[in-house]
Amino acid sequence: MGRGDLTNSQWARLQPLLPQGKKPGRPTTWPRRQLIDGIRWRTRTGAPWRDVPERYGPWDRIYDLFRRWQRDGIWARIVTQLQAQADAKGLITWDVNVDSTICRAHQHAAGAVKRGISRRNRPVVSPSSRLTTASDAPEAD
Description:
The protein has 4 helices and no strands. 35% of the residues lie in helices and 0% in strands. It has a domain at 30-93. InterPro entries: IS402-like_dom (IPR025161), Transposase_6_like (IPR052909).
C-alpha cells in the first residue's frame, strides 16, 4: 500500500457507494480499489495518465474507469453521498466566507473613464446656457 492509498477504513466507507457491475462473467483483472488508488494518485500529483505507476494497473484502464464514471455522474454522486454522511454526523460546518479582496472585475466593468474618441452621449449643459427653442422654456402656470 502506497502512502496516498486508501486505508481499510476509508475503503469500507467508500465501497458501498460504488456502482455494482451489471454483467456476470469473468472476474476483473484489476481490483477496483487498486484502480481507484491509481485515479487518486493521478489527481493528487497532476501527472499525465501515462505516468501512473504500474502497481495501480494499466494507465488506460485507470483512465477509462475515471472517464466512464465522470461521464455517468458517479463521482458527483459519491461526493454528494459522502458529504451527506459527514453532515449527518456533524462533521461538516457549512459556514460561507467571502473575502472581497479576491473578487476582481475587469477594468471595463469598474466604470473606468474611457479614452479615445468616445464621448458622453449627452452634452453637459451649464445653468447659464440660453434656451434656444420654445419647448425648452419652462411652462407657465
